[in-house]
Amino acid sequence: MSHDVTRSLELYKKAGERIPGWTQLISRRADRVANGVSPLYVARSKGARFVDVDGNEYIDWIRALGAIILGYADPVVDGAVKKQIDCGSLHSMNSALEIELADELINTIPSAEMVRYTKGGGEACAVAARIARGTTNRDVILFCGYHGWHDWYQSANYLVDPESGEYPFAGIEPIGVPRALAGTAIPFTYGDLDMLGRLLTEYQGEVAAVMMEPARSEWPEQGYLEGVKELARRHGALLVFDEVSCGWRESLGGMQKYLGVTPDITVIAKGMSNGYPMGAVVGSREAMEPAKAMFISSSYWSDNVGPVASLTTIRELKRRDSETHLAEMGQKVAVAIDEAVSSAGLSGSCKGFPATPNLVLDLPDEALRGKVQTLFIQEMARRGVHCYMGFGPTLAHTEEDVRITAEAVEASLRVIKQGLENDSIDDLLICDLHSEPFRRIVR
Ligand SMILES: Cc1ncc(COP(=O)(O)O)c(C=O)c1O
Questions:
Q1: Which 3 state secondary structure label does DSSP give 359?
Q2: Residue among 315, 266, 285 at smallest CA distance from 69
Q3: Half-sphere exposure (CA, 13 Å, Cβ side) for 374?
Q4: Residue 85: what are its φ and ψ, rounded to 5°?
Q5: Could you report how far apart the first and last alpha carbons of the chain are, in Å?
Q6: What is the pLDDT of residue 162?
Q7: Average pLDDT of 11-39?
Q8: Quick one: pLDDT at residue 218?
Q9: By alpha-carbon position, which residue is closest to atom 7 of ligand 1?
Q10: What is the pLDDT of residue 149?
Q11: Cβ of residue 243 lying under 6 Å from some atom of ligand 1
């Protein structure tokens, strides 16, 4: 099977000489995929596919790490953006688009009464942390899940030995993060109400917010989120849901709408603008209004491209009934992949939410999982499918994409089966081992 990514590898080498860390997002590093086989540089993307700089075409299930939801280069969103660019991408004073988008978000997200904008998710989490601290006049944030690169959050690394494998972020050191912040952001384990209660008591009167991804890949246990909300309220802390990754796909109103539990503040980004930089913090008037006295300000937060992309994306998601279609397509992929797993003679199945299924293989030895997943990414790349183990569709994925993907899954799993039977996984890997740079503290 010929599959050449020479140009990608050359560019990556050049990048390493000019850009510390090669890429702007850790998830786009070569060691996150099958290094030596997976594409590293993309020439163009459209719909559910992209062509890499070596001319190979792929069906893409990573969809720009969740930022693409309608499909790449969506004609309606891109048309609105192009029209806006002709009227000015950024003005000297404000654009009424900010208010139009605020109304759309307030009408869409159950807990939204006021809105602030940013250009990305981590930045929006930092704004939420600032607002929560300013509104409550308290410093400590209890968190669960991934919330970006900023000091307020990464300072939690100082609480554990990064090599210990314990949370928050095994293997990533907090280099450059002020040590003085240690103890101001403290992790808690998803699903463990007792632990959260103990932390709130230990830091009685100091906790500004409980910040968490309400769900990431599995449903919370009955009553868990309600319990978190009740605990936060009882201790005078704001509840912040980070819906940067879990928002938009299962429900346009976010996981909070799907699960029926509303926070004080919500952080959104990624899918809200289908590939244009945008993030937002939305919340109740009570939680958000004190922000008018806080220093939260940046030049490009007033741009017109992100808001017009976001407005158009949200309206298109509604017009195209994304909730129904993403869930239906997600289920079709899950069924097709489950069939491919059994045809290949392995055991395992797709788990997760309807619109975002994840393949979990049953393995004879858990220690093999890293290698098996790398081999899977490698074999799928060789067959023209760019993926990890997740297969959440965009609205541009077709039944043909699902069929081709399922064929590739079956063929790739046959290779894995042979590797498991002959104890030859290492020999079959023609790439470096894929690495998971941090553990997210959420199930
Ligand atoms: C839950 C969550 N919060 C925050 C972020 C950071 O967003 P960004 O990469 O846009 O800064 C991410 C990104 O993966 C995320 O999944």
A1: strand
A2: 315
A3: 24
A4: -60, -35
A5: 37
A6: 56
A7: 96
A8: 87
A9: 121
A10: 94
A11: no
Residues 98-118: tens digit of each pLDDT = 999 999 999 999 999 999 999
Pairing of strands 49-52, 42-46: antiparallel
Instruction: Quote the pTM value.
Output: 0.96
Across residues 349-354, what is the average pLDDT?
A: 96
Please name each of the domains of the chain with its CATH number: 6-70+321-428 (3.90.1150.10), 75-319 (3.40.640.10)
Contacts of 88 (CB under 8 A, 6+ apart): 304
> Stretch 73-95: mean pLDDT, rounded?
98
Q: Which of 244, 272, 388, 439 to mutate to test the pocket of ligand 1 (most atoms within 8 A of CB)?
A: 244
Taking the centre of ligand 1 as the mean of its atom positions, its distance from the CA of residue 254, in whole angstroms, is 15
Is 392's pLDDT higher than 80?
yes
Tokens of 205: 């009167």
Asked if residue 357 has pLDDT above 50, the reply is yes
User: pLDDT band at residue 443, thresholds of 50, 70 and 90?
Assistant: very low
CB-ligand 1 contact for 306 (6 Å cutoff): no
Residue among 23, 146, 255 whose CB has most ligand 1 atoms within 8 A, to mutate:
146
Centre a 10 Å sphere on the Cβ of residue 437 and count the other Cβ atoms it contains.
Answer: 13
Residues making up the chain, counted from first to last = 443
| pLDDT reported for residue 173 | 76
- Residue owning the nearest CA to atom 16 of ligand 1: 245
Ligand 1 within 6 A of 271 CB? no
347 — alpha (psi -120 to 50), left (phi > 0) or beta?
Answer: beta
Instruction: Quote the ligand 1 centre to 425 CA distance (angstroms).
Output: 33
Which of 148, 116, 125 lies closest to 306 in space, CA to CA? 116
Distance CA 13, CA 320 (A): 42
Q: Which of 387, 375, 386, 382 is nearest to 420 (CA)?
A: 375
Ligand 1 atom at shortest distance from the alpha carbon of 65: 14
Mean pLDDT of 70-79: 98
Q: Are 336 and 407 in contact (CB under 8 A)?
A: no
User: Residue 261, Cβ neighbours under 10 Å: how many?
Assistant: 21
Task: Give the mean model confidence (pLDDT) for residues 415-425.
Answer: 97
Task: Choose which residue among 65, 245, 265, 436 to substitute to test ligand 1 binding: the one with the highest number of ligand atoms within 8 A of its C-beta.
Answer: 245
pLDDT over 90 percentage in the chain: 91
55 CB neighbour count, 10 Å cutoff: 9
